[in-house]
Design goal:
Elements lengths: L1 H11 L1 H12 L11 H18 L2 E6 L6 E6 L7 E7 L19 E3 L2 E3 L7 H15 L8 E7 L9 H7 L8 E4 L33 E2 H4 L6 H10 L22 H10 L3 H8 L12 H6 L15 E2 L2
Parallel strand pairs: 3-6, 3-7, 8-9
Antiparallel strand pairs: 1-2, 2-6, 4-5
Helix pairs in contact: 1-4, 2-4
């Protein structure tokens, strides 16, 4: 009956839970912008206080060289497994502001959805675990497993200090399984269990050319323009079938089994759903795989930005 009671508690306190989440979203905890550094710290302090009120123990804000980590635990079941919960409370910048129907840090409910920066990445997902913990502790007085929480404030800038925090506290953070509260669901009433994720490697390519601007009438066709060279490099990153053309790129890629692929085909979103979410009509990528497979079990190489100063002038 413990789980049933916890669910009943959640339903009866839904309004308050929503209010708490909206308070959480109001913090402009934009980790990449120095002007919001104080807001990130305020958000961490608010989260610390909330975790204490939920009933977690040894709750503390751990400083790093930039933004803090919030830690909490409940370890009163020595014979049961320990679950490590990860989440992040920092958010991406809300720009361009003109695209928002309602202000990004003034949460708004429309059509039974909560809109606000961070509501779905990652404050909302993080809160599902926090509130599940509250539901158990306020009904059964205990949790079905031991729990440790690591809630960081630097995920949106690549978690530069998380590895050091984990290494320094390796023994204290030991657990049987880790859950990351930063993934999605397939849809309403379709809870999803994500058991693997792609990693990420970010690179920046810089191409330099002549020391000063060159007149295209005098040098066009004789001196290679750096912007053109950069575009040529980018154009060679994929072959005509959408595969990454970098030698050795796929050498250590784990292939999904036939059973996994069939399961994804039965239960995953169709190509049309993905294109509809992207608000586009045409898909792209590695031939032989569905769009869902390209998003999940296949590696990708994407260009997230390109800029430059031309070294030639057109007359």
């Amino acid at each position: 009956m413990t789980t049933a009671e916890a669910i009943a508690y959640a339903r009866s306190h839904r309004t308050r839970f929503l209010t708490d989440l909206m308070d959480f979203v109001r913090f402009p905890s934009v980790s990449v912008q120095p002007k919001h550094a104080y807001d990130v710290k305020r958000c961490a302090a608010w989260l610390e206080d909330h975790l204490k009120r939920v009933g977690l123990e040894r709750v503390k804000v751990v400083p790093t060289r930039q933004h803090p980590v919030v830690y909490a635990e409940w370890l009163r079941a020595p014979d049961l497994p320990t679950l490590l919960i990860y989440g992040h409370y920092d958010v991406q910048p809300p720009d361009p502001l003109a695209e928002w129907i309602s202000p990004p840090f003034q949460p708004s409910i429309r059509s039974n959805n909560l809109y606000g920066r961070g509501a779905s990445d990652d404050k909302g997902q993080l809160f599902t675990h926090v509130k599940a913990i509250e539901c158990y502790l306020h009904t059964a007085g205990r949790l079905p497993v031991n729990v440790k929480c690591i809630l960081e404030g630097e995920e949106e800038i690549g978690s530069p200090h998380l590895t050091g925090f984990i290494e320094h506290n390796r023994r204290a953070l030991a657990g049987h399984v880790a859950v990351m509260s930063d993934t999605g669901m397939l849809g309403p009433n379709r809870p999803s269990l994500t058991y693997s994720l792609r990693g990420q490697l970010a690179l920046e390519i810089e191409v330099r050319g002549p020391r000063h601007d060159l007149h295209s009438g005098n040098f066009g066709g004789a001196v290679h323009d750096p912007l053109q060279a950069l575009c040529e490099i980018v154009a060679q990153l994929h072959d005509k079938n959408g595969r990454v053309a970098i030698p050795g790129f796929y050498n250590r890629v784990r292939r999904a089994t036939q059973g996994e692929r069939e399961y994804m085909q039965r239960n995953g979103p169709r190509n049309g759903e993905i294109l509809r979410d992207a608000e586009t009509e045409t898909g792209w990528g590695e031939h032989g795989y569905s769009l869902y497979e390209r998003l999940t079990v296949r590696p990708s190489l994407t260009v997230n930005g390109i800029s430059g100063v031309r070294c030639s002038r057109v007359v």
